[in-house]
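WARN no homologs supplied; continuing
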Amino acid sequence: MVILQWENHSNSLKLEEQEKADIKAKIESKVLAKEGTWIDWQYLLDATELLRRCRYTLQYTYPYAYYLDRDPRKELVSPLLPPIIASSIFF
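OK structure emitted
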């Protein structure tokens, strides 16, 4: 399961590059159509970057939790992963 989840996040990060390019193209079309300035639409790129960073962090949480020795930190992290997976329909 750890490898599958890690690969899913890795694939999502790869697709994210295309998504970022699509967002940039959409922003440029909005700016050219006088539907706002570049700054007005900058939040979309900021949100995309934040989502990428969250996916990256979550991706490396799985192997970290898997290889962590049995101690209080593992007891803290391990129960949190299944609810995160279940609630993250976009990951």
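The radius of gyration is 17 Å.
OK
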